[in-house]
Amino acid sequence: MLGFLLQRLISLGIVLFGASLVIFAIMRFLPGDPVLAMLGFDTDPVVVAELRAELGLDRPVLVQYAGWLADAVRGDLGTSIFLRREVVDLLAARFPTTLALAIASLVVALAVAVPAGVLSARYKGKALDHVSRLVGLAGVSMPNFWLGLLLIMFFGVQLRWLPVGGYVPITQDPLAGLAHLILPAITLGTAYAATIMRMLRGSMLDVLRRDYVAVARAYGVPERTVTWHDAFKNAMIPTLTVSGFAFGYMLAGTIIVEVIFNIPGVGRLLYESILTRDYPLVQGIVLFNVALFVLVNLLVDVLYATIDPRIKV
Amino acid sequence: MSTVVVERQSVTQPAPKASRRWLRQLWRDPLALISLVVLAVVLAAAIAPTWIATHSHVRPSMERLVPPSTERLMGTDQFGRDVFSRAVVAAQVSIAVGVITVVLALAIGVPLGAVAGFYGPGPIDTTIMRIMDVMLAFPPIILAIAVIAALGTESIEIGPFEIPHIAKLMFVIGLLYAPQVARVVRSAVLVEKNEQYVMAERALGASRPRILFRDVLRNCISPISVQATVLVANAIIAEASLSFLGLGIQPPQPSWGGMLADAKTYVQSGEWWLTVFPGMLIFVTVCALNVLGDYLRDVLDPREATAGAP
Predict the structure, then answer these.
(1) Residues of the domain holding A260
(2) d(C-alpha B15, C-alpha B23), whole Å
(3) Which residues on B lie below 8 Å from A15 (Cβ)?
(4) I need a labelling partner for B143 at 20 to 30 A (CA). Which of A40, A281, B66, B248 fits?
(5) What is the C-alpha to C-alpha distance for residues B223 and B217, in angstroms, rounded to an integer?
(6) Is the pLDDT of residue B3 over 70?
(7) Into how many domains does chain A fold?
(8) How far is B139 from chain A (nearest CA, A)?
(9) What's the pTM?
(10) Is B38 on the interface with A (CB under 8 A)?
């Protein structure tokens, strides 16, 4: 187990190092001058040179990269040009919001996917199965920004049941916080609900074909017990893995939902940093997102190996 | 008695080629058939938008924010432009980006995956797949957002060439999907390279590149075409997402994502047609592609289970 963990940590390091190279290359070698883009093309050359020096852009490229990487490893991602604050501080302030949104989305996705997947496997080929597969297909095909706008139109504007945007921390006001999270969580969770449902249905069908299920049925164990106690427990393992990866995607993929619902999370910060051409901030958020994504994937792998004793690590 | 013999004969006939099989079974799958019709209509709009569009897609008029009617099928937007005509022209952009992106992803991913699978295990395989792992470590869209944030949304000049923004978009999204293609091709080649015919050709003295690119890859077409179909759907959503964020297709050029970005302002004031129709078109097109992908997987590649990541 320790060897497996060490091996995964080393490959995580390699991947993160590669990703940092890619991010740095994108920001430095692509055509276009970030400083001119930020200040405008007819700015006084003295001002341009000053900002260039402030950002360290006048130093050799390798020195720039080494400096950035060394700082990043120590937890210093630089300073935002536009907001004049440490990138790390900005991320720390925004991340809890994004985390709450991702957790709520995962809850929505599982609440839909687990019953739908299990029942659709149990009634394979019946009407219920067809309906839930069609809904699943619609779920993966629906662009989440469209779904978000439709939800706002229907539940926010038409019925006036839920707020159309904004954010209230749950710790501050649990009821209002929850109300503000429902529509964004449905928006982000739907596509993953469909993915998890398809996965669960597949592995349920696989397990229901096994001998021990036939034995349980032959002993007269009620079908409900067979489905939930015997089959579901075993089908849960691959589903858990998929849900874990989905959680990683959700954490990194909140930008559109945060823009639609005006939620002050990391995704909206990235959106704003692009609009203001705040390069250190863009660079920092992208690196943070990659690190988070890779870390969640590693945790899912470890969890998978811990839960299923059949997996040798 | 004679009927039994006839049946036996038909069973022992050689299996029809994959290319015909997927057409023949289409009649038994109404959902796939409908999807194919839907895609044909969208494709027709993409190829000849001027035949289908009822009004100019750029010219403003005084009839602003008019609800749908028989005259204005999908109503008009805040500048009095015809939403239906704009949506038809936008189909061209979406389909072009979707298809060209995937062609690019295949052009990069297929050779890399094929070489990695065929010449592996070894340093070539490891190097290629490590680079792909780094690319896959980026959450989807984040990489595209980072590149477009750095490049800007105007056309750029590289040497004597002027690169329009839409070409940058295609390249970025294509690059994003290349590792996924490489992974699928690699695993298909890994299976295929142990087949007897590969050994036979080696024994006959055929060179390895010749075997790989002439024969092995031809036998990997099924998984590749399944993945390509689903990737076109994903690429259309990716382009629409970027356009929705203002990083994709730039106004006044219509795009489905861009139309929804404009519609965002009117979500609370009741102009529902601005939101419903462009989104519906993305949804229907992507749905049709996903159904077709599932169908192709079932017909061409029975080994793969129907469970894909978004």
Answers:
(1) 95-264
(2) 14
(3) 133-134, 137
(4) A40
(5) 11
(6) no
(7) 1
(8) 6
(9) 0.87
(10) no
